[in-house]
């Protein structure tokens, strides 16, 4: 009986901006480098033949690949085993194999080994060879090291190009007989699966090729979830707020919303608060072995299994890796008990489930059918949900608001709809405006809420909004909703995007009385918490235009830390040894792996939603490590704290975040810690997990405390974290 492999997991990919150039002598790539403290970006050059290029010497680029999902994928033993089994089953004789998106070359090496490709056959003719296509130059350089370590450098022909740039007769001697590839994201199509397969079938593969994977099928399920509702429904949630700010006034409720797309999330982390309203249903099927269509649509009738309100469609996919249908890999949530989801308990971050928000929600009764229209393009899958016999949205909106939408991330929607957060901001701004006559207020970040709040609370104030990320979108938004908030259209001035920094000429020689922010910078949602110290940097640059008694809000930031048990996250980033028989130890330093790295190669701090990191456990109370005094110009600072463990367990690292103190009296504090699910925390994983206990009950060999020290470099925005256990 053939072995059946049944697997399940989850994914996130870090987007990167690159531009490639080539010449006869070398290959180079331009990597976009962002300065988190200024928002400035520049292109840096990575040369193929220069291992010590600028990109690798610069501290910002030191962990160029550490923030990607490569390490997590290579630690996914279910994924690796499934591909290895399918490749060995599919490739049984010498042939020409094309690996698109080769990464470290793992699938290429599997293919070469499967057909017993030796040095005498590899590259010499098209009967037994592997062509590995990888467009990202830093990964190409890493792949060469892996192939050399495994003595397969001559077995595999590496092409540093996009697959749609490959030409038969130039880059590869003939069309390939077999395609192996893993160019999938959590949604399945987001990494360009369809156009890649189309070009490969048109230009690079023989007719009726063998492929691994063989097929992918997407599935969905209707769910009710208050948390998911808060992530996209601002109009209904802010209606409960006690303040008079209306970011989405009545009649203008589509003016702010999330982008109509699927969002990758670990749905298992919220399984206890999700109510399932339907059975799972099949949506689309994509065959790798034939040319896919660019567009497809399907109409599904989905029957309710319970009464409730549909807030979202949760979706996932299942890979069939072999033609016979015996080897599978699934990203389904754990609540699915299908035979193909055995082993779904292992947490991985590189593939997650996806969530499609249903605008406004829709009521469903048990036994009632709703109509789900699903469509796919080259790169995405979309949904539209209607009750049987219902019409499309025919509401009338003011000011042609349908022609304008300010799209914000789901977490930002939830924050703006949170009553406690809004009341805290209201109190802080009201206190700041006391005894201020005709104040000039500068909103330094992208906070539309603060700009409206100041203008509404102080009719005599002049508000200048920088909106460094929102820019013209922020200005257009304010013009639409200002009347509904009792603010004149000229009450808030949005700075000209062409001007670098504010000068006294911009303020008619009047100095700034209030310099405020949340802080929030649009587009920086996936960054580390302390990269919002851009607010402190900009306050320092504008020091000359601040009045002597200028009020800075937030007044300071406090770096907080908590010891955590994070076994799933740590295991997903642990050092690699052999992966399905191939030595990958040479990638550990570059990919920022945990364990086995020699000083000075420290594991990097990476941003995560702690609550989505699989199995988690608090091992200590929360401690303050150091403070960032925003009332003064930015400066180098450091601090340390001794953390006492309150729970026994295994410590895998520390969660770090910033609590923003809005006033000098320390009376209003807004936390971005793990208990707040709308902010990412920084995670510093240990090189090796440490057994810990409490002072009252400590076993031999357990540590009961740790000293955490941190230093902040204002020139680079780097935060260095150290720790000593005792």
UniProtKB/TrEMBL annotation:
Entry's EC annotation: 2.1.1.-
Pfam families, A to Z: PRMT_C (PF22528)
Domain Protein arginine N-methyltransferase: 228-374
PROSITE patterns: AA_TRNA_LIGASE_I, SAM_MT_PRMT
Group of enzyme by EC: transferase
One of the GO biological process terms: methylation
Keywords: Methyltransferase, Repeat, S-adenosyl-L-methionine, Transferase
A GO molecular-function descriptor: histone methyltransferase activity
Top-rank lineage group of the source organism: Eukaryota
Record-linked Gene3D superfamilies: Hnrnp arginine n-methyltransferase1, Vaccinia Virus protein VP39
Role, per record: Arginine methyltransferase that can both catalyze the formation of omega-N monomethylarginine (MMA) and symmetrical dimethylarginine (sDMA).
Protein family membership: Belongs to the class I-like SAM-binding methyltransferase superfamily. Protein arginine N-methyltransferase family. PRMT7 subfamily.
PANTHER family in the record: PROTEIN ARGININE N-METHYLTRANSFERASE, PROTEIN ARGININE N-METHYLTRANSFERASE 7
Descriptive protein name: Protein arginine N-methyltransferase
Natural source organism: Tripterygium wilfordii (Thunder God vine)
